[in-house]
Hints:
Blueprint: H1 4-8, E1 13-15, E2 26-29, E3 34-37, E4 60-63, E5 68-71, E6 82-85, E7 90-93, E8 104-107, E9 112-115, E10 126-129, E11 134-137, E12 148-153, E13 156-160, E14 171-174, E15 179-182, E16 193-197, E17 200-204, E18 213-216, E19 221-224
Parallel strand pairs: 1-2
Antiparallel strand pairs: 2-3, 4-5, 5-6, 6-7, 8-9, 9-10, 10-11, 12-13, 13-14, 14-15, 16-17, 17-18, 18-19
Amino acid sequence: MATYKEEAGTAVQNIAGDTGTVGGQLWYDSSNSEFKYRYQAYGNAWSTGNSMNTARGYGYGTGTQTAALAFNGESPPDQVLTESYNGTSWTEVNDMNAARQQLAGAGTQTSSLGFGGAPPPDYNLNELWNGTNWTEVNDLNNARRALGGAGVDNTSALAFGGYISDNSALTEEWNGASWAEVADLATARQDLAGTGIKTAALAFGGSVDADATEEWSGSSTTTKTVDTD
Length: 229
C-alpha cells in the first residue's frame, strides 16, 4: 500500500497549531499532540468542520466562513459565551455582559453588535464587540426578541421585526452611537432572518408569511413575492 508521502508527494508536516495549512492537508499539530486534517470542499456542497466548544441554540453569528464569531444562545441555561472561528476550529474568547437568547447582530469577527433578545422581560440591550471585548453601549429603543439584523460592522447596523407583545414591524438604525426608528417592515413578524448592510438589506422568512421577502433601500422596504408553487 502506498504511503502518504508517495500519494501526496510530501511527508506529514509537524506544525504548531494550523498556521499555513491548506485544504486537503494532513499535519501533526505539535501544540496539541494530535494529527489534524483540514477539510477540502469540492463543488457545491457542505463539508463538516470542527465542532463548537459549547453546543447551543438561539444564538447569533457574524463574519465569514474563515473568520466568524458566535455569541450567546441557550444550552440551557442562557449563555454569555463567545467563540471565534478561524476557518478550522473554534476558540472561546471574552464573554458578553448579559446572558440571553433569540437576539440579533451585525458585523464581522472583529467588529460586531449583539442586540435585543430574551428571556422575558425582553432585552433592549446592545453590546459592541471590538475584536477583544464586549461593551454595553446605547440600547435599542424597543426591547424585543426573535428579531432580524443586518450591517457591515459595529458602527452601522439595522434591527427589524421581532416580538414585542406580538409580531413587530419596527425597524431601527444604528449610526455607531445610538438607535433611531425608521420606516417599518411591510409585514410584522418574528423569527425572521436578515442580511446585508444598513443601506441595502433583506428581511425574509419568519412567523407570518414565511416566504415573504422585503428589501430595504436605506429609507423604506419593498415587498417581493416568492412563487412557492
